[in-house]
Amino acid sequence: MTPTATLVTLHGIRVLRCAPDGPSLDGESAALDLIGDAFGQEAQLVCVPAERVGEEFFRLRSGVAGAIVQKFANYRLRLAVVGDISRQVADSSALRDFVYESNQGGQLWFLPDDDALEERLRPTG
Fold first, then answer.
1. What is the mean pLDDT of residues 32-52?
2. Can you tell me the distance from the alpha carbon of 111 to that of 103, in angstroms, rounded to the nearest whole number?
3. Cα distances (Å, whole numbers) of residue 88 to 50, 62, 98
4. Angle between the N-to-C axes of helices 28-40 and 64-74, in degrees from 0 to 180, rounded to the nearest 10
5. What is the pLDDT of residues 68-117, one digit of tens each?
6. Confidence band (pLDDT; 50, 70, 90) for 2?
C-alpha cells in the first residue's frame, strides 16, 4: 500500500505532501481528515496536488473553497494546491482573482509545481 501522504521538511517548515492518488479534497470532511493527518505528524503546511482537489472547490459559488480554507485557518495550518489549474482559472475570472489574492497571503497558495513551493518557503533576506 502506498502512503497517501509523506512528511518532508522544506526550509525548516514541516510539509505534509499528499500523494496524487489519494482521496479528493472536496469538502469540510475531507479537509478535517487532512488536518488530522497533519496534526498527527506535526505538519505546518499541507500540500495537495491539484488533481486531488474536487471540481466544486474551483466553483467559488459552491462555497466549498471557503469552507475548506476556513477549516485550515481555524487550525492554523497552511494549504498549498500544487499543479496545473489553468483550465479552471481560464473558465472563471472570480477564480483567477481568488488565486491571485490567495497567493499574496500566507494561508493558501496555488503553485504550479513542487519547485515553486520550495521557492515560496525559502527564507528571504
1. 96
2. 8
3. 11, 14, 12
4. 30
5. 999 999 999 999 999 999 999 999 999 999 999 999 999 999 999 999 99
6. low
Q: Which of 2, 24, 72 is nearest to 44 (CA)?
A: 72
Quick check: 105 and 91 in contact, CB under 8 A?
no
Residue 54: DSSP 8-state: -
Can you point out the beta strands (E) in the chain?
5-10, 13-18, 45-49, 78-82, 108-111
Dihedral sign of CA atoms 116, 118, 119, 121 in order = positive
| Strand partners of residue 10 | 13
68, 34 contact by CB (below 8 A): no
| Dist. CA 70–CA 66, nearest whole Å | 6
Task: Write out the three cell numbers for 120.
Answer: 515560496
* Residue in 67, 73, 72, 70 with CA at minimum distance from that of residue 48: 72
Distance CA 21, CA 2 (A): 9
